[in-house]
Structures are given as C-alpha cells and as structure tokens.
Amino acid sequence: MVWRKGWCLFAEELIQKGQFVCEYAGEVLTTPEVRRRQIMYDELALVACSRINIDATRIGNVARFIYHSCDGGNLLTKVVRIAGALLHRLCFFASKNIEKDEELSFSYGDTTLKPNGFPCFCGSSCCSGTLPSENT
Ligand SMILES: C[S@@+](CC[C@H](N)C(=O)[O-])C[C@H]1O[C@@H](n2cnc3c(N)ncnc32)[C@H](O)[C@@H]1O
C-alpha cells in the first residue's frame, strides 16, 4: 500500500471519486479492555466490537447502525491514517452505486469461519443464515 499525505492512495482515490460515506466512530480500546467488554457484552447479549477495537456502544456515530450483509452489501471498509494523527481510522466507502433510500450494509466478516449463532436477516441470495462473530 502506498501512503501519501497520511492517506493511502486507495482511500484518497475513493475520496476524490466521492465514494467516502462515513467513519466508524467509537472508543479506541486496548485488547485487554476489548476482552473485558466482550465478556460483559456477551452476558448482556450485545455485539458491538470490531477487529480494530473501536467500540461504538457508548460513543459512536451513524455508522453504528449499519447492518451486515452476507453478499458484502454496498460498502467496503478501509483503515486509513490522517497526517499527523497517531491512530488509524476505520472508514466506509461505497463499493458500488448507491441509490437514494437504499439501505447501507457491509460484511461484518466471514460467517463460514466463525458464526456467532445469531440469525442473519440480510436477505441476500448467499445469506448463510447466521451473523459472523467478532473473531472472524
Ligand atoms: C447495526 S449494530 C446495532 C446498533 C444498535 N442497535 C445501537 O443502537 O447501537 C449491530 C447489530 O445489528 C444486528 N444486525 C446487524 N446486521 C444484521 C443482520 N443482517 N441480520 C440480523 N441482525 C443484524 C445485530 O444484532 C448486530 O449485533
């Protein structure tokens, strides 16, 4: 991956094409804190952590409402870094043309690797019937 002005070229190209949708905002956590919260969320039946440890349960933005789709949906995620910033950011980009009022969705992970046991209602033709776990 090539970096320029803090952004990878791929992300910069997508931004120039107007494909940036939003950032996945939340608390940036250490791995031990992720594990601690995951146990708590499992007990409360909440699923809210992603692999780069951004927890949108308490603090987040519109991205926390985006659902999983087994066919990958219409968004892709990219980890990007802004010049001078210490932390990487997780951003959503459009992976195809999105019509007005079309629901945004992306793949939470590969359900064949580790399904979490909760039913998936994405409705895509390749739906596995189960949501992926945080560990996929
Ligand atoms: C989109 S967030 C939910 C945000 C939460 N309602 C809030 O207020 O912050 C992730 C959750 O949505 C549900 N979800 C996402 N995609 C789903 C799908 N395809 N089928 C069923 N439930 C889904 C799951 O419960 C998952 O843990």
UniProtKB/TrEMBL annotation:
Compartment list: Chromosome
InterPro entries to which the protein is assigned, alphabetical: H3K9_Histone-Lys_N-MTase, Post-SET_dom, SET_dom, SET_dom_sf
SUPFAM superfamilies, per the entry: SET domain
Gene3D superfamilies, per database record: SET domain (2.170.270.10)
GO molecular function terms listed in the Swiss-Prot or TrEMBL record: metal ion binding; methyltransferase activity
The keyword Methyltransferase is assigned to this record: yes
UniProt-listed PROSITE patterns: POST_SET (PS50868), SET (PS50280)
Domain of life of the organism encoding this protein: Eukaryota
Major localisation: nucleus
Gene Ontology CC annotation, any one: chromosome
Pfam families reported in the protein's UniProt record: SET
Biological processes per GO annotation: methylation
Domain SET intervals: 1-109
Keywords: Chromosome, Metal-binding, Methyltransferase, S-adenosyl-L-methionine, Transferase, Zinc
Post-SET domain boundaries: 116-132
Name by which UniProt lists this protein: SET domain
